[in-house]
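We include this case.
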Amino acid sequence: MIIATYNVNGVNGRLPVLLRWLQEKQPDVVCLQELKAPQEKFPEKEINDAGYHAVWHGQKSWNGVAILSRGSEPQEVRRSLPGNDEDDQSRYIEAIVDGILIGCLYLPNGNPSPGPKFDYKLSWFDRLHKHADYLLKENVPVVLAGDYNAIPTGFDVYKPERWVDDALFRPETRAAYKSLVDQGWTDALRHLYPDEVIYTFWDYFRKAYDRNAGLRIDHFLLSPLVLERLVAAGVDKEVRGWEKTSDHAPVWIELN
């Protein structure tokens, strides 16, 4: 079973890239972020024609998350993160697929920091902590996948000294991510490849992809019942080099 996460940076504008990747990789489950499309503009027909069922939470121009499944239909559990009923940003959706609870998330960027956007990022992280703790205590197989907009360590970024004031790498962000992992989650890619340079995002500017000047900000956090099934993980880096592609590459794990 292959589960993937992919910040598509506009699901309609990047649809040819997404469909090509789905055909070539054929993942069983896909978490998408940054749909940048209202609910009614999600390309459901094209996704269905590619062999996938979908649940999604859209938002005009910004944000947006979706879960695709190549087998059984995803059973939606929730489409917002608990803890703030007034938060109308579409950044979280949760569904059960083949007995695994999948949480697809798009954590706030937080820039400029400090400031209101960074405060919102940290408060969203706090809500995620609480919900993730609840999910662990349920003792069910859970995958929390998506764009965390968090660089865990200096090993996860090209030239970390250039990112010290960025919201993705500020000490508060790294501490929040570490605190989440310390609840009992496992960062899948780092678990399998503790010493390898791995990036999932390359900026469009300064030929970042050509120079491999990237960041690792798209993560899989696995509960213990999923970790025991983990056999492989990786980044489809070549997709970042395709024409009119996202600035993120798809990331995936394989479970037995």
Notes: The longest helix spans residues 116-137. The chain has one domain: 2-255. The longest strand covers residues 100-106.
